Hints:
binds adenosine-5'-triphosphate; single chain; 362 residues; alpha/beta; ten-stranded mixed sheet; 15% strand; 12 strands; 43% helix
Amino acid sequence: MSKHRVTLIxxxxxxxxxxxxxxxxxxxxxxxxxWEVAPAGAAVMEATGGSPLPESTIDSVRCNxxxxxxxxxxxxxxxxxxxxxxxxxxxxxYVCLRPVFSIxxxxxxxxxxxxxxVRENSEDLYAGIEFEKDSAAAARxxxxxxxxxxxxxxxDSGISIKPISVSGSDxxxxxxxxxxxxxxxxxxxxxxxxxxxxxSDGLFLDRARAIASEYSGRIGFDERIVDAxxxxxxxxxxxxxxxxxxxxxxxxxxxxxxGLVGGLGIAPGANIGSEYAVFEAVHGSAPDxxxxxxxxxxxxxxxxxxxxxxxxxxxxANRIRAAVRKVYADGTYxxxxxxxxxxxxxxxxxxxxFTDALIRAL
Length: 362
Ligand code: ATP
């Protein structure tokens, strides 16, 4: 019997390729994992006429407690809700953890980035509470806001609601501080736009300050308005350590940070709750390059290294991270996104060639 059972949700788009590469690398590195492959996304919905997130897939994660997932496409502007968001909600994976670090040779603008994004994963504008333009519910809400003197909303508006709660803020900020303490980090920065959104971001900031006071003397604390954060990250990412943000700002800052170190192709992540953890790259399904063997599987492979840490297999995780650094430092086998980030005119290698080189470097 294998030591660990892990649910593998390959996803769609480039997820099919990155997941296969990840599995090859993790197996070759010597991890004793039994993979339980579980479907999700538009293809399974079309094939079964059922949900894009089948109950059997959720049950598999519940049973194994740990999953790794490739990206799943969310069609823009249709009734199809994001499977990624649904999975986070169903399993209450309230933390989105995204370490951002420089890999020499990967084309980052800085050589010494080492920060961690802790993104709230369950509320904010991402909660999916929306009212369609011209719907009766939207009209009632517009009328209600008018009556309350909360402000006039144009009648031809679609509306998304931004809920931010005390309990949701407390648990994510506490996670950020506990994480900082556990990993020997020094400072947590809370991000907001409380000057404009007093009752949502203002609440988040108040709670962040209150929780920070419990860690005073052990972990430093500062605050940043989200627009200033973006500028400060670009000018000097070295001033940040752990950054905790509400959901939408966390989404945007994650991509910005990925850009600082070489792009989405190398940015790993994890969705964590009190019972379950689902590891996944920051990037989406990249339909423009899907099925062409062009994608960079590093982000999912580094997500798997985070998963191995979580499973107590740090030695194997470190071996994988060391092999990644070796392949990038060597520079012979780099995918097209990295050639572009490094402004090289050499052709990118295929996802398979990159994966083979990585396995040789283990
Ligand atoms: P989502 O909304 O699901 O996050 P998105 O449309 O914002 O997805 P991504 O799919 O994450 O964006 O990626 C944007 C672009 O970056 C892709 O179209 C692709 O060109 C490039 N890209 C993303 N991930 C990779 C990767 N692993 N390898 C190579 N290129 C990538």
